[in-house]
Design brief:
By secondary structure, the chain is an alpha/beta fold. It has 14 helices and 22 strands. The chain has helices spanning 24-38, 53-65, 79-89, 124-137, 155-165, 185-193, 225-234, 261-275, 291-298, 310-320, 343-355, 361-366, 384-395, 438-452; strands spanning 14-17, 42-47, 70-76, 93-96, 105-112, 116-117, 149-151, 174-179, 198-203, 238-242, 249-252, 258-259, 281-285, 302-306, 324-326, 332-334, 372-373, 377-380, 402-404, 409-412, 416-422, 428-435. The chain is globular. The model has no long low-confidence stretch (mean pLDDT 96). Keywords: Isomerase, Magnesium, Metal-binding, Phosphoprotein. InterPro entries: A-D-PHexomutase_a/b/a-I, A-D-PHexomutase_a/b/a-I/II/III, A-D-PHexomutase_a/b/a-II, A-D-PHexomutase_a/b/a-III, A-D-PHexomutase_C, A-D-PHexomutase_C_sf, Alpha-D-phosphohexomutase_SF.
């Protein structure tokens, strides 16, 4: 019987429960389909610390090698380390991870040579069709000459490349607490930080795909409580929290307060513009703070606003030649990193900025954090379109109110804006509000939620 992959092939990646929704037999077919669609004669494969990752990635490699393709296995790595391997070797790549999902999940993030993304519109739907067909008919005949499977360690090269992009050698000594959440940050941070003027306080660095301490998703406030407490207890200069595959990084200041990813986007944008002679394009999605385009313009750059989602950001990065891009979700994209996202490089920029002056992190980021934000508020609704239309109707005709529908509905005035977006996968509407002061924020937030939840 043909496998139904509709539940596990998402917009940007493959993700599902192992072995209930997919297993090594399907992983092998994914390997064969990936090389068929990309036309590759060599690929690179890495995996995270989940119990099922070695077996799944090995099966994928077998499927690719059977088609005559040479496979380089880089073993345990972060997702941005896989992007480094894909970029530096100029090979298509596959990363086995389910990011912050629970232990029973696993998935594949795929890219073409040079870390170019593979999503539904750029090959993933064709890969799905092949795997579904072959799961019923059987895999295609193997190549006359199978490909080779070799192993290579890329961790040192990855760390060295990052450190060529940010100079940390002359910063003042900093004490930094890092919560790896038992994810891949525990593997990459020690090598990246080695020899730098940093006193590292590690938390949950033991690689454990069952996530025994907390979910490895630092955007959920409950998952950074331990880090916040440790930063204050240690009197540290800052804290860093990585997600399970260590491609996202969340920052905590010396008071134990979370620093918004919009403020980090603005800070890194200013530094990247300075590195590029005070000129360049910076991408930001439409629910980052007003602060981001303001800071970009103040530093000589051109801000470009996009939809939410890494495929849109990477598309705009490539199309505009942008030097940097940031999202509210703590994904940070760099031209000098093949337009791919790397939380580690953003973290190094924060360390360099903080260590290059004498003040605290909270003082440093205050100039980049100018407004009050609600964060993302989800509401379960039966009819997303009807509730969105009701919200639009309520503000239609009001003086000074503008609308746009780049991604969901954005309503703005001189003093506030909000965006209301439907979830693609659940019956939810996601609300983000920003205003010039807390009272205005509360008023607008409560007005919109009353309409959404009516």
């Amino acid at each position: 019987m043909a496998a139904d992959l509709s539940n596990i092939v998402k917009a940007y990646d493959v993700r599902g429960v192992v072995p209930d929704e997919w297993d090594e037999r399907l992983a092998e077919l994914f390997g064969a389909a990936f090389v068929e669609v990309t036309g590759a004669d060599a690929i690179v494969v890495g995996h995270d610390m989940r119990p099922s990752s070695p077996g799944l990635s090995g099966a994928f490699a077998r499927g690719a090698a059977a088609r005559g393709v040479d496979v380089t296995l880089i073993g345990l790595c972060s997702t941005d380390q896989l992007y480094y391997a894909s970029g530096s070797m100029d090979l298509p790549g596959a990363m086995f991870t389910a990011s912050h999902n629970p232990a029973q999940y696993n998935g594949i993030k795929l890219c073409r040579a040079g870390a170019a993304p593979v999503g539904q519109d750029t090959g993933l739907s064709q890969i799905r069709e092949l795997v579904e067909r072959w799961s019923e008919e059987g895999a295609p005949a193997p190549a006359a000459t199978p490909g080779t499977v070799t192993e290579q360690d890329t961790l040192a090269g990855y760390a060295q490349h990052l450190r060529t992009l940010v100079d940390l050698t002359s910063i003042r000594p900093l004490k930094v607490v890092v919560d790896a959440g038992n994810g891949m940050g525990g593997h990459t941070v020690p090598t990246v930080f080695e020899g730098l003027p940093l006193e590292l306080v590690p938390m949950y660095f033991e690689l454990d795909g069952t996530f025994p301490n907390h979910e490895a998703n630092p955007l959920d406030p409950k998952n950074i409580v331990d880090l916040q407490a440790r930063v204050k207890a240690e009197g540290a200069d800052l804290g860093l929290a990585f997600d399970g595959d260590a491609d996202r990084c969340f920052v905590v200041d010396e008071r134990g307060e979370g620093v918004s990813p919009s403020a980090i986007t603005a800070l890194v944008a200013a530094r990247e513009l300075a590195r590029n002679g005070g000129t360049g394009t910076v991408i930001h999605n439409l629910i980052t703070s007003w602060s981001v385009p303001e800071v970009v313009r103040e530093n000589g750059g051109t801000p470009v606003r996009t939809r939410v989602g890494h495929s849109f950001i990477k598309q705009e990065m490539a199309g505009t030649g942008a030097i940097f891009g940031g999202e509210h979700s703590a994904h940070y994209y760099f031209k000098d990193f093949w337009n791919a996202d790397t939380g580690m490089l953003a973290a190094l920029h924060v360390l360099a900025a903080l260590g290059g002056q004498e003040g605290t992190l909270s003082a440093l980021v205050s100039s980049y954090d100018r407004y009050v934000g609600s964060g993302e508020i989800n509401s379960t609704v039966a009819d997303q379109a009807a509730r969105t239309a009701a919200v639009r109707a309520a503000y239609q005709g009001q003086e000074g109110v503008t609308f746009d529908e780049l991604d969901g509905l954005t309503v703005a005035t001189a003093d506030w804006w909000f965006n209301l977006r439907p979830s693609n996968t659940e019956p939810l509407l996601r609300l983000n509000v920003e205003a010039r002061d807390a009272a205005t924020l509360a008023k607008v937030r409560d007005e919109v939620l009353a309409l959404v939840r009516a």
